[in-house]
Specification:
Distance between the termini: 40 Å
Radius of gyration: 13 Å
Number of helices: 0
Shape: globular
Oligomer: single chain
Helix content: under 10%
């Protein structure tokens, strides 16, 4: 069982930056693939990025490639999402998620953190 808690959301102007954190419970964090997703009002949940268990591989959606950076600190059981050059269309609730295999669905989800980008 893994519990995930996101933090770091807030209100920022377009062009600004935010860093989200996702703290995980449990002693096996380093064996999980971690991902970030987002959901804007009235829209489906959108995949943003995934990082492998070791942190050596990352997979970004085209919508955030070059602006967002995922990283993880397995010693701190934490995954981060650095978001730069934010746009109003990045406004959404951001969720982190965990899974044990690259080929499976995400098993564990955080409660989400709101990011609002003003124009």
């Amino acid at each position: 069982q893994v519990q995930l808690v996101e933090s770091g959301g807030g209100l920022v102007q377009a062009g600004g930056s935010l860093r989200l954190s996702c703290a995980a419970s449990g002693r096996t964090f380093s064996s999980y693939f971690m991902g970030w997703f987002r959901q804007a009002p009235g829209k489906d949940r959108e995949y943003i990025v995934q990082i492998s268990a070791s942190g050596s591989n990352t997979y970004y959606a085209d919508s955030v490639q070059g602006r967002f950076t995922i990283s993880r600190d397995n010693a701190k059981n934490t995954v981060y999402l650095q978001m730069n050059s934010l746009k109003p269309e990045d406004t959404a609730v951001y969720y982190c998620a965990a899974k044990r295999s690259a080929f499976k669905e995400y098993e564990y989800w955080g409660q989400g953190t709101q990011v609002t980008v003003s124009s």
